[in-house]
Amino acid sequence: MSTGSGERAEQDPGGVAAFGPFRLFPTARRLECDGTPVEIGGRALDILVELVNQAGRVVSKAELMSTIWTDITVVEGVLRTHIYNLRRALGDGVGGARYVTSVAGRGYCFVAPVVRGPSETTTYSAVKRSHGLPPRLARMAGRDETVRTLVAQLVDHRFISVIGAGGIGKTTVAVAVGHALLDDFGGAVHFVELGTLTDPAHVAATVASTLGVPMHASEALESLRVFLQDKRVLLVLDNCEHVADAAATLAEHLFLRTPRVHLLTTSREALRVEGEHVHRLGPLETPTEVLGMDAETVQTFPAVQVFLERAAAAGWSGELTDDDVHVVAETCRRLDGVPLALELAASFAGQCGLQGMTAVLDDRLRLLWQRGRRTAPPRQQTLHALITWSYGRLPEHERAVLRRSSVFVGTFSFDAAKAVALEGGDSAESLPAVMSKLVGKSLLSTSVQDGAVVYRLVETTRVYAVERLAESGELDGTSLRHALFFTERLAHANDGGEPLQEHASNLANVRAALPRCFSSVSGHTAGVRLVAAAVQMLLELGLVSECRQWCRQALDVMGRPDAGTLMELGLQEAFAISAMFSRGNGDDVRDALARGVGLARALGGGDHETRLLGHLNSFRIRTGDFRGAVEVAEQYVAAARIARSAEMVRARWMLALSHHLIGNQVLAQEHYETGLATASGEPPTMGYRQPHAFFRHPQALATFARTLWLRGKADRAVTLARQVIEEAVMLNHPVEECTLLILCEGILVWSGEWEDARRLVDRLVAHVERHALASHRGMAMALRGELLVKTGRPEEGCRLLRSAALALKDVRNSSLDTSFAAALAEGLAATGALDDALGTVESAIIEAESRGGTFNLPELLHIKGILLASRSPADANRVDDTLSRAIDVAQRQGALTWELRATTALARERLRRGGSAEGLRDLSVVCAKFKEGMETPDLQAARRLLEQPR
């Protein structure tokens, strides 16, 4: 049994192939145009035969070259030359005719409809008239398995209805099935187009006349039964939806009374009669996640294949690159993989290119009106006409539900439809039946999510229905009900009703509702309340820029009744968090935090106060005010004493980070371990799921790892850091992941783990760019610059560090500026700019002391001592004093590793000057304090110095 002309293995190479005005005779090696032989080279003819045999399939260049030139090896340029000659012989492109298209990055495809005959004596007209089937379209991407399934089902069950939305490709599939079964039915396949009928009473007569059955119109059904009683025939009844009752009567009558007749119908709804088996035709598969996908991979999706082939047929001649992947994939996704929509959109690629097409696609009305194939029925030449045709045949109550449902974006539940699609006087009892009818007519689709049925409008239908909603005057009322529904739903989730991560399906609807609310004064109150309900979801999903935008808008229009309430408090808090991480640590963040703390205390403190103090601590840290960060952490401790134990854990860990940064490593370790002891029995996140819970266990673990490294416990520190790096992605929160990567990068750099540090910086940079985290961009840039300096590329590193300093200044992030100043000083020294290096590190030391100290002040003094020793002549006393001070500060901080570095440098300088072995004795004492980390660069350098021959 044949399975379709698009599969090369099924072709008869000796048969005639007709396309356009051409007939191809493979056995005779002849090509004719309107009966006149066409002059064409032998290799070009071979290529034509191969492409026609695989019409509709993209044939790779490698496959063509290996098939056509079996005995020699040729370069790709030779193939291109013969393709050019072939196109010239066919007049490809002249008068809009298209035969052979290039599919970028894949090969070539024969796109013209091909009709095949059993022998070279068969004429094109005879072939066409033999069964009445339209030519099988060349593009059948993604439907081969569907055709095979339908062929088998028709043979087994006799009666199949292919149903689906307008433009989904029902007719194309039915035609392909008919062609596939021609041999099996001995050519007795009859295609009947019912789409042009206006009177259902003419259905039976139309079928009878197509089969050549003599009859009187009133006796058509019985005449058909008599005629078909003993015949094995396949009847393809196309576009039955507008004459569904008459088509159903005909199909059931023939199924029950003509046992050898097989029926294939296409419709937007099932006929629902005896014997019918329904096959719902879905959209073409489209890419859903394109991150990291290249051009070759994206072209494996049928929707993309159809789009590119039709774009090529429309005149696009470009090569699909990796940069184009997002544009093409997003186009296919937005158009829901609907073939007709893809075809219409692809026509713009021929006019504007892929990038230019996106602007046109955003103007959705232009897309809906764009003309399609001239040979298609008028109602299928534009999406607008196609949907208008369907909409016009609905009763008013079904139209109302359809157009009101257009405010939903993506899937929605029945409860959502009931809340939004019904107005005051509407009966909820009839809604299930209406929804069921719209699903049956393929205007709504259904699926099952988490065990519940959800509904969805195809995007093109939704856009059309929004137009009708605006025309009806119902847009404002429907939009308000839509906003209120999602406000209540999100409030329920915030109260613990549903996990917010699972609630991300609400996001598209919230995004659609908010602009409508804020577009008029009458919607402001609803908009403010929707924002207040949505901020927790936005923050948990890492959408900080979006959260900041909507919070600002809500606070700007908030009315007097809502001012000073918990609602304003939540908005001020969310604005502060989102602005801090999306735009930096500006005055607006400081003011929002101050207002929030004041409101929290006025309203009774509790969780709100502790959360805001946590964010204020973070603000102080990011602005480099470490002394202020310690003070706020102590306020947090006082507030947390009357809160639950989880808050005391956070309080201890907040103190640990603040003391670590100001340079109190002993206290930092004590606070972390106290918090850990308090947290025993609590889950790692302390049961506090809100994104407002700024200090979670992974961040505390990263802080503890940094503290351990400075305390001389490098092995434990690196192990913890690697654990945090692996687990960071599991948080599924961009801001938190970036924070953890930044904290852990320092440990890898301090330990000389250069390759791991490079990979971590690459991951950080990619994450920052992917989520547009402006507040972290400068930090990522600085860490890359520091790494370049440390790994022998000081010029590049210094350039990057200077640029990063400006970026960090723009967002007022000073938390690690003294660390980056140390790296810049080292880089400048490596390039020979010793005076600039000294000036840089001395400025950093002054800044660190003005803050009451920093965790790296001993290291800054150590670097300054080394730079002073590099001058000629060196001031030995000044070098010794600076390095001795570095050792003293490190000892007071409890930073054993900084003490080791400075002690090693001092011993080396004294030995270089021919001094006594006192420095070596001090170094030996410091080394003896280490119980782990023996393979770290610092301990190895110290041992080499101690083992040096005297």
Arithmetic mean pLDDT: 83
N/C terminus separation: 93 Å
Overall 3D shape: elongated
Helix content: 55-70%
Task: Order the strands across the largest sheet as they lie in space.
Answer: 4-3-2-1-8
Report the sheet with the most strands, covering strand number, pairing sense and barrel closure. 5 strands, antiparallel
Percent of residues in beta strands: 5-15%
Poorly predicted parts: 1-14, 119-130, 364-376, 683-695
CATH topology label of the largest domain: Serine Threonine Protein Phosphatase 5, Tetratricopeptide repeat
CATH architecture of the largest domain: Alpha Horseshoe
The number of domains is 5
What radius of gyration results from the CA coordinates? 37 Å
The count of DSSP E runs of length 2 or more, i.e. the number of strands, is 16
SS content category: alpha/beta
CATH-defined superfamily of the largest domain: Tetratricopeptide repeat domain
Which CATH class of the largest domain is shown?
Answer: Mainly Alpha
